[in-house]
Amino acid sequence: MIVVYGIKERLNPLKAQLSDVIHGCMQAVLGMPEDKRAHRFVPMDKEDFYYPGGRSDAYTVIEINMMAGRKPETQKALIKALFHEIEGQLSISPVDVEITIKEQAPYQWGFRGITGDEARDLNYKVNV
Is residue 22 within a helix (H) or strand (E), and if so which, with residue range? Predict the structure, then answer.
């Protein structure tokens, strides 16, 4: 699951495009299938969204929650792909993008009435 935070006036107009960019990177780097898009957008009022100095109102935070198993090189490749594609397709400077990857053990994921370690029918690889 991916959660994206930003100032609503900047985030709302590009949510669909940003979702496409993020999912494209997830597919290219992690091999995620087309139908595994799980994005949540949290548009915020400017007065509720504090961010570091040197950033603009385009500042966007992307939190990626995933089952543990991806190699550090794979995770770094995903982060770099996101910076590159977001800048190239949406003209948001990498200085205005913050990306965190939060890993949880498969047994800490629950979906379709089972835990992730019980799933035997995933159509993507976790250990890449």
Answer: helix 15-25
Asked whether the CA dihedral 74, 80, 85, 96 is positive or negative, the reply is positive
Q: What is the pLDDT of residues 26-38, one digit of tens each?
A: 999 999 999 999 9
Positive or negative, the CA dihedral 103, 105, 111, 117 is positive
Tokens of 6: 């930003």
Model pLDDT, residue 115: 83
Q: Which two tokens stand for residue 95?
A: 């200085």
Domains of the chain: 2-118 (3.30.429.10)
Beta strands in 15-69 (DSSP E): 39-44, 60-67
Per-residue tokens: 113: 């009435």
CB count in 10 Å sphere of residue 59: 22
What's the rounded Cα separation, in Å, for the pair 30 and 103?
14
